[in-house]
Amino acid sequence: MNGKRRPALESLSGARVLTQLSREIETCTLCPELRSYCAEVALTKRRSYIDDVYWGKPVAGFGDPAARIWILGLAPAAHGANRTGRMFTGDRSGDFLYAGLHRAGLANQPTSVARGDGLALRDVWISASLRCAPPANKPTAPQLGRCARHLDAEWDALTNVRVLFCLGAIAWDAALALLARRGHSIPRPRPKFAHGAEAVVGARTLVASYHVSQQNTFTGRLTPAMLDLAIERAIERAAGVGRR
Ligand code: SF4
User: Fold this and answer.
1) Mutational test site, ligand 1, from 28, 82, 138, max ligand atoms within 8 Å of CB
2) What is the model's pLDDT at position 242?
3) In a domain, 1, yes or no
4) Is the beta carbon of 163 within 6 A of some atom in ligand 1?
5) Is the CB of residue 130 below 6 angstroms from any atom belonging to ligand 1?
6) What is the DSSP letter of 154?
7) Residues 6+ apart with CB under 8 A from 138
8) Is the whole-model pTM more than 0.70?
9) CATH number for the domain that contains residue 160
């Protein structure tokens, strides 16, 4: 990835664009410091995963190319998606999120252990504001700015998306910035992140949830019932029910 959009992408569509985009993301080197960090984590490993071969690269989105709901997270976890190569896969955050998606009928199984584990999503695409695991889960503004090009490319490919389901404030801000870059007027005052917040921007609705991080789920800040309600609202908005 050299930072330029490939003209060839524009002649492709839907699933083919997303497949090609996955390859571009996985080879992106725009943030050398993050690529080094991910590679180092992949070498040093966590003791409990010492026998695993870590992914150690940027993590592309995955799910249903015809999705109406686009779930945006923060970034791959160092020993989660940076290990397994799939978003929210192989860690407690993923356990929490996919259990909720399964309860809502949007995932065919409640667990997400590894690529190739049979997980399939219906009407949902999952990606993140940043595609490389950042140290301490804290991306910098320049890193988010560089990685936004991958959101733009996904936006162009995910033509059915009606709802951006934002896990956490960083994803909420990234979604608003994405919509602004794609020519949409952002309401004023600018919608603020809060669990359960919604914002209508053009024909799309943002729905917010606290992030499914262990910090939130272990402390009870985000409960399964709260996640279920937020997912239910995202499904309703995607179907055109309620505020619009
Ligand atoms: S964070 Fe995004 S822009 Fe930076 S190297 Fe990773 S994929 Fe590329």
Assistant:
1) 28
2) 58
3) no
4) no
5) yes
6) H
7) none
8) yes
9) 3.40.470.10
User: Is 132 close to ligand 1, i.e. is its CB under 6 Å away?
Assistant: yes
| Ligand 1: residue whose CA is nearest its atom 7 | 131
- The residue whose CA is least distant from atom 6 of ligand 1 is 132
At 22 the pLDDT is 97
Residue 138: predicted pLDDT:
96
Verify whether ligand 1 is closer than 6 Å to residue 99 (CB atom): no
Per-residue pLDDT at 154: 97
Atom of ligand 1 nearest to the CA of 146: 3
> What separation in Å is there between the alpha carbon of 61 and the centre of ligand 1?
13
Which residues on adjacent β-strands are paired with residue 124? 69
Let me know: does 213 contact 144? Beta carbons within 8 Å: no
pLDDT at position 14 is 83
For residue 46, give its domain range. Answer: 7-238
Look at strands 62-63 and 124-128 and give their pairing.
antiparallel
Residue type, 127: S
Q: Which parts of the chain have pLDDT scores under 70? A: 1-12, 242-244
**What percent of the chain has pLDDT above 90?**
92
Q: Is residue 2 a part of any domain in this protein?
A: no
Per-residue pLDDT at 8: 46
Beta strands in 77-211 (DSSP E): 124-128, 163-167, 198-201, 204-209
Residue listed under structure tokens 């390859």 = 23
Q: How far, in Å, is the centroid of ligand 1 from the Cα of 239?
A: 33
The count of domains in the chain is: 1
Atom of ligand 1 nearest to the CA of 32: 5
